[in-house]
Design brief:
This protein has twelve helices and 18 strands. It is an alpha/beta fold. The protein is globular and about 65 Å long. The protein binds NADP nicotinamide-adenine-dinucleotide phosphate.
């Protein structure tokens, strides 16, 4: 019998009950009534496995998608119960006899590439649609050694800041290298060194802009949250208040935004736009695209389906690119930039483990001032005690 630990689960029964309670209105769902503490039996530690104690994790938006079933009903597809959680930081307790990269006492972070395709890109995401994958929103976990990366403890970030990054930083890193590469096929560095780069709100968008700013580009953060815009100012990232344009509710709002961006960029517009939201944000992002521009996305928070004028995008030579999570190698490369480039904004409250459902509810309500972190371990190892 494997060891039993406490971990959060989502059941299709809980999703259905909450959906019924709010009359089918996904936006009105209280996800804290869906995500519940459960007992998880850990599998035995195999030869290439690592047994770790979770110290902290970040709340990720894919849990909101799982708990509301707004895209696919993933808990149902996973057989009625799933243990979510694909972004965590932990302490290694024991390793299988073939593991050479890690030893007991190491501090590690996870990546969530569930199954790389032949070029390394994820066919599925761990603890989401990868069959039989068990997530890390629990007290302990047994994971394959290929799913872990050493945490860069001397990178200058706090433990909570490091815990904010395992999922969001590789996503931002991949989108940035892809979008820049695509733009550079069209307009080489020799012709134009400095680009205008814009992202809409969210943790991934913030990190995307930190990459752009670190490489000397003009970076703009178009978000509704004043706190999150202010947090990016020290990086030289200019805020644009999305609510001043009514979150692009009408064509007039988009036109006003188009004019604002034209003035802000001296008529150049945005060479690269990161849009993790879609919905009304998508036409706004395209409206401010420069000629030869790139619009990149790995998210569909507000809508899965988009529509655009193909003729116009062709005439403007605009590329609309879709990415997902990084390759395993790309995740390791993104980790090299912790602290030097990636300095995430963490929400003001560090949540206790038992408060995890509330953390997800507040994420759903969009009231957090930064990336939400849940502290799992009350006692921290000496190696990280100075990082909190
Ligand atoms: N494919 C992948 O590998 C991958 C990885 C990470 C995330 N994602 C997806 O990308 C999306 C964003 O993730 P994240 O981690 O960056 O987000 P996040 O930190 O949870 O933030 C979500 C952001 O959405 C913005 N927002 C909320 N409601 C909005 C609305 N009605 N209109 C416009 N903006 C709104 C908010 O910004 P303001 O209120 O400040 O505007 C908020 O900061 C999620 O759907 C997530 O599932 C995908």
């Amino acid at each position: 019998m494997g060891r039993k630990v406490r971990a959060f689960s989502i059941t299709s029964e809980a999703v259905a009950a909450e959906k019924e309670r709010v009359g089918g209105d996904t936006k009105a769902m209280d996800v804290s009534r869906v995500i519940a503490l459960d007992d998880l039996e850990l599998r035995d530690v195999g030869p290439t496995d690592v047994h770790m104690r979770i110290l902290a994790f970040s709340a990720e938006h894919n849990i909101d998608h799982a708990a509301t079933a707004d895209t696919v009903n993933i808990s149902e597809l996973r057989g009625g119960r799933m243990f979510p959680g694909n972004s965590a930081l932990g302490e290694v307790l024991a390793v299988g006899d073939q593991v050479t990269k890690f030893k007991a006492g190491d501090i590690v972070i996870t990546h969530c590439n569930g199954e790389p395709d032949e070029y390394g890109f994820p066919l599925r995401i761990w603890a989401y649609d990868q069959p039989d994958s068990v997530g890390w929103y629990g007290e302990e976990a047994v994971v394959g050694d290929w799913q872990l990366i050493q945490a860069p403890l001397d990178c200058g970030l706090t433990l909570w800041e490091m815990a904010a990054l395992p999922l969001r930083a590789p996503t931002a890193y991949h989108m940035w290298r892809r979008a820049l590469g695509i733009y550079r096929i069209k307009v080489p560095r020799e012709r134009q060194a400095v680009l205008n780069v814009m992202s809409f709100g969210g943790g991934v968008g913030e990190l995307f802009l930190q990459l752009a700013a670190a490489e000397g580009h003009n970076a703009y953060f178009c978000a509704g949250s004043a706190e999150r815009r202010a947090a990016l100012e020290p990086f030289g990232i200019t805020g644009i208040d999305q609510k001043a344009f009514n979150r692009f509710a009408s064509k007039d709002d988009v036109n006003a935004f188009r004019k604002h961006v034209r003035d802000l960029t001296g008529g150049e517009n945005m060479h690269i736009v990161c849009d993790m939201l879609r919905g009304p944000v998508f036409p706004a992002g395209l409206a401010v695209a420069a000629r030869e521009g790139v619009n990149v996305s790995a998210g569909w928070q507000l809508s899965q389906v988009v529509e655009y004028n193909s003729t116009l995008m062709s005439a403007k030579q605009v590329t609309i690119d879709h990415t997902h999570y990084e390759t395993v190698q790309g995740c390791a490369a993104a980790t090299e930039l912790y602290g030097s480039v990636f300095k995430p904004t963490v929400h003001s409250e560090i949540y206790a483990f038992d408060d995890t459902p509330r953390a997800f509810h507040e994420m759903h309500e969009n009231t957090q001032t930064g990336i939400p972190i849940i502290r799992v371990a009350t006692d921290l190892p000496a190696s990280v005690a100075n990082l909190v």
